[in-house]
Amino acid sequence: MEIKMCGIFGYFSSDFSQISSEIVKSMGDVINYRGPDGQGIYYGNGLALGNQRLAIIDLQNGNQPFISEDNSIVVVQNGEIFNHIELAKELEDSDFYCRTHSDTEVILRLYQKHGIGFIHKLNGMFSIAIYDKNLDKLFLIRDRVGEKPLYFYNKNNTLLFSSEIKSILKNNIEKDVNINALDSYLTFNYVTPPLTLFKDIYHVMPGTYLDITRNNISEHAWWSIENNTELNKTEDEWITEFNGILDDAVRIRLRSDVPFGAFLSGGVDSSTIVGYMSQHLQIPVKTFSIGFQDPKYDESIFAQEAADRFHTDHYSEKVEANLLSLWNKAIYHCDQPHGDVSFMPTLRVAELASKKVKMVLTGDGADELFAGYDKYKEFISSSSDTVSDDVFFSEYYSKISLFREEDREKLYTKALNKIISKNKTKEIFNNVLSKVENLDRINRMLFIDTYLLLSGNNLVKPDRMGMAVSIENRAPFLDYRMIEYAFSMPGELKLHKNETKYIYKKAVKDLIGSNLAYRKKQMFTVPIGEWLKSDLKPLVNELLFSKTTENRNLFNYSHIKDMYDKHCSNEKNYTREIRALMALEIWFREFIPEYTHV
Predict the structure, then answer these.
(1) Do 306 and 264 form a contact (C-beta atoms < 8 A)?
(2) What's the CA gap between 416 and 439, in Å, rounded?
(3) Nearest 5°: phi and psi at 289?
(4) By the 8 A CB rule, do 162 and 426 touch?
(5) What confidence tens digit (pLDDT) does each residue in 86-126 have?
(6) What are phi and psi of 76, to 5 degrees?
């Protein structure tokens, strides 16, 4: 079996112009940490497809690109096809049998046999580029929910693509800010796909592929849950199905010939994954967690409880609660600002795990599928059953907004207010909502977060923080079978009488124990808001009120100063807003330091 963590990159020009091999090589070099063991590049007529590879085994046969015997099909891939063994077996008696054990070859052979429709057969996390010389077409394909990133830029007769934006920037393109993406960031605390903060650079959306010819690009949705209908089953039937799907999702994600383990916080999600892993493995699971030296914020006792229950080989490290020294590194690896400070502890636990393993399983995705966040409980309990759907979801949009519409107007300069598309972020929200009008209110809220929050923020975190130290993250909850199952379950079985993850917790309480199943969910709860008033005050002043920042001409800085003063005097808690603005300035200094809005 070949295991790899990779990055892909390349270009496709409509006029057959060539980009120098030095620039193409630099596109891979800048994301070397995604695959430091080898670089493979295919050059064609006005195109190149490249891959950075972290080779574990099958060193001779697993190198990318994979090219068909007649040189007509070229494939590069980032990610894993978890069911590649079964797919290779299906191909055994055909003309398209696999010569290696690589899951990338499975992609090549499936495409040769079935054409682009092969992607429906894949169970995995992936971004894939396929060049078909017979059709003179490039396909860019992204997995169902966006576990693996894929970006593209299309201008001046050339399309550039890569797993990370910094790779595209190696082509000396003009770096400018997408103002509507900036508005999106300050609305949601992350930039909503397909936008990026860079003008003219976009995500390939989850569950879609781009069909690219020399004179046209068309986007095709190849998977969605829009037509799911909620089913009527007994609780016991839901529980049996939950356990069956998750058990198999864990099983196929244990396929590895390299050391692997799991992140273990002691929460219900990571404890459940470790519980299932322990049932499949003959040796103890390697588990990793970080705790804080200050006992007020330390949760490592719960991770230890889960580790003891499943007899894991547990590695834990106590760190200072203030991990903001990692902020610049986290933003660099993300390519975009994120106001979510849990990226830093994720990076720290990935660094710890990288000393022992090359791959980890995580509990990512469970909160969005099964209503794990307290915000759902708080909002449902405060909303009225009698209000219309329009009012209900308008209020939910306000609840999840970082800066509301009227607050952003006060924040922006007059010049900026004139050019921002008003209500654009609300339009993004409503467009997602309109896809699932057949679902109940709880499931529609969850769909919004699955569609926007997961791909825009919560899956960026494990991919980028893991890849920064060459750790691959696999998320069994994001097996497409589990997602389709989750959105066929009525919302009242997820959020039931103020209990989050109702059926899910009932399903796993025997596995992980009631104490872990029903303990209160913890977020990254260190007192950043208080630090902003004291220890971090010099950093606040430098990032928010320096001449460098004010010269960007984006914001009403007297308004920001007023917010900060009210925060310091305890008049109002502006922790999240201040944090997001600081992250934005760190991003500017890293990627477009000279930026000034004219």
Answers:
(1) yes
(2) 38
(3) -150, 160
(4) no
(5) 999 999 999 999 999 899 999 999 999 999 999 999 999 99
(6) -130, 150
